[in-house]
């Protein structure tokens, strides 16, 4: 199988869209990610996957903390900014939950301390111990087969 076939197959799994954020020396850094999942309830753990070539890898290692912000359906532009899909500069406002930066309006803000990091293939998996959660009402932004989507209500 070639790389394109593998990517196309992985794209058939519909996911939510997150922005992972961290802060180093007073500067906030973020990246769009859909490689996120819960790991454990006791203790509360999540995992994110960061490419070895991503600048976020070094930043998360430096800070030892990160947030996972599950984006609302109307936050597509934020996803595009942090995925590098928009070339013109846009300022993004962050809030803090505890001392960790989060995206205002995200339907879930999850802050974490890095518990352990595992290098697997061309990515590092960061296991994060959840330190705080804030939830908002709203519909999630969905990503499927290379396109942004919204949930359709069957009610």
Question: Can you offer a commentary on this structure?
Answer:
InterPro entries: Flavin_Rdtase-like_dom, NADH-dep_flavin_reductase, Split_barrel_FMN-bd. Residues 10-150 form the Flavin reductase like domain. Keywords: Oxidoreductase. The structure is a single chain. By secondary structure, this protein is α+β, with helices and mostly antiparallel strands. The chain has a single domain, classed as Pnp Oxidase, Chain A (Roll), CATH 2.30.110. Helix content is 15%, strand content 48%. It has helices at residues 3-10, 55-63, 76-82; strands at residues 15-16, 18-24, 27-33, 36-40, 45-51, 65-70, 95-97, 100-102, 108-120, 123-135, 141-144, 147-150. The strands form 3 sheets. Strands 3-2-6-9-10-5-4 form a 7-stranded antiparallel sheet. Strands 1-11-12 form a 3-stranded antiparallel sheet, with no helix packed on it. A hairpin with a 2-residue loop joins strand 7 and strand 8 (100-102). It is globular, with a radius of gyration of 15 Å. The chain starts with a helix and ends in a 5-residue tail after the last strand. The relative contact order is 0.23. The model has no long low-confidence stretch (mean pLDDT 93).
């Amino acid at each position: 199988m070639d790389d394109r076939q593998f990517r196309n197959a992985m794209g058939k799994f519909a996911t939510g869209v997150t922005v992972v954020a961290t802060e180093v020396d007073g500067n906030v850094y973020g990246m769009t990610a859909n490689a996120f999942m819960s790991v454990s309830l006791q203790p509360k753990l999540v995992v994110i996957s960061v490419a070895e070539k991503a600048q976020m890898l070094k930043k998360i290692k430096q800070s030892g903390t990160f947030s996972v912000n599950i984006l609302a359906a109307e936050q597509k532009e934020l996803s595009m900014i942090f995925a590098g899909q928009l070339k013109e500069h846009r300022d993004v406002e962050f809030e803090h939950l505890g001392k960790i930066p989060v995206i205002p309006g995200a339907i879930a803000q999850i802050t974490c301390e890095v518990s352990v990091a595992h290098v697997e293939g061309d990515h590092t998996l960061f296991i994060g111990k959840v330190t705080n959660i804030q939830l908002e009402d709203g519909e999630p932004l969905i990503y499927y087969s290379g396109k942004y989507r919204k949930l359709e209500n069957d009610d």
